[in-house]
Design brief:
Layout: H1 2-9, E1 14-16, H2 18-25, E2 31-36, H3 46-58, E3 62-67, H4 69-74, H5 80-84, H6 87-96, E4 102-105, H7 106-109, H8 113-124, H9 128-134, H10 150-164, E5 169-173, H11 177-189, E6 196-200, H12 217-224, H13 241-249, H14 262-275, E7 277-282, E8 285-290, H15 295-302, H16 308-327
Parallel strand pairs: 2-3, 2-5, 3-4, 5-6
Antiparallel strand pairs: 1-6, 7-8
Length: about 325
């Protein structure tokens, strides 16, 4: 149980609630779901939840993946036909990472009367103000959704997804927490067991705003997260070596700053989970850092023992090697 708990919890930004995890791991076949929008070029930020699924699977939890076709359409990611084309690419990538899952298309679940019943019940028990505040999961400011009511439905649908799929855990980046918290509250009102939230950290975009440029936390979630809609702000799985190195070496990487530091985040939340151990050069020699003591990396960087150029070179070298393996 100790090993299973370590696998589930390591590298997460937050867990709600921690005390539920061990109880649910004692079930015969605990299940976890993650939803993703099958659209656009895949950037390395996707690897955070994909690699976390590998940990969760190793902990003996069955995986359900919701291919959020309808959600992507609501979020202006293309026509339903265009969105459909991306599913096979994601499935192939997950297979290379060793993740075995049951795939569910949101087109199928929205046609189920039971889902619509849950959605209507949830709408009846949720305020418009709460839904407005939850649209941060779309990476849009509230004023951007005033002209399209379907975007208000998006977080409510995500809350209902976790209830409808009858899973024990919901995995998602920290910006999806408002929808999952709504799901927990609604489940309690329905007399059901609430989903346990496993929140992964965000990978900031390569041109993420400095802390002094950010007015609110919503702005951080809306504009700092790596996104395929800003090509120069992201590293894509199909970028070649020269492109990857150029993007990394020109990325702002403030000395001793660990918050909204894209390079540090890539090393901590993508490279460490993939390799599990990294040999990192510091001013005092080579240090081996494992995924289970990743906070050491923050400490070394804050103390100035790892300088920005050192970190960038490590990131470029290991990330290129990793992406080459995934593209084979």
């Amino acid at each position: 149980m100790e090993d299973r708990l370590r696998l589930v919890l390591r590298g997460l930004e937050e867990v709600i609630r921690r005390e539920e995890v061990e109880k649910k791991l004692k079930k015969v076949e605990p299940e976890c779901y993650v939803g993703y929008e099958p659209s656009g070029r895949i950037h390395i930020g996707w690897l955070v939840w994909m690699l976390k699924l590998r940990d969760i699977q190793r902990a003996g939890i069955r995986i359900k993946i919701l291919e959020a076709t309808v959600h992507a359409w609501i979020n202006d990611k293309g026509s339903l036909e265009e969105i459909e084309e991306h599913k096979s690419t994601v499935r192939a990538l997950l297979e290379k990472l060793g993740v075995a899952a049951t795939y569910i298309d949101s087109l199928d679940i929205v046609s189920d009367p039971e889902y619509i019943k849950l959605l209507l019940y949830s709408a009846k028990n949720t305020s418009l103000d709460r839904l407005r505040r939850s649209v941060v999961i779309l990476r849009r400011r509230i004023e951007e959704v005033e002209q399209d009511f379907s975007k208000i439905l998006y977080p409510l649908m995500q809350a209902v997804d976790a209830i409808y799929l009858k899973v024990d855990f919901a995995l998602g980046s920290i910006d999806q927490k408002p929808a999952f918290m709504m799901s927990r509250d609604l489940a309690v009102k329905m007399g059901r067991e609430p989903v346990t939230i496993l929140s992964t950290p965000l990978i900031p975009g390569l041109k993420a705003p400095l802390l002094e440029d950010v007015d609110s936390y919503d702005d951080v979630l809306s504009y700092a997260k790596m996104s395929s809609s800003r090509p120069d702000d992201a590293i894509f799985l199909d970028d070649d070596y020269e492109t990857i190195r150029r993007k990394i070496m020109t990325c702002p990487c403030k000395p001793r700053e660990t918050i909204l530091n894209p390079i540090l985040s890539i090393v901590k939340h993508i490279l460490l989970p993939y390799y599990e151990k990294l040999n990192i050069e510091t001013r005092e020699g080579t240090v081996t850092i494992s995924i289970d003591n990743m906070d050491t990396l923050d400490e070394l960087y804050r103390e100035g023992k790892i300088e920005p150029d050192m970190l960038k070179n490590i990131c470029a070298e290991y990330l290129t090697e990793m992406l080459n393996k995934l593209r084979e």
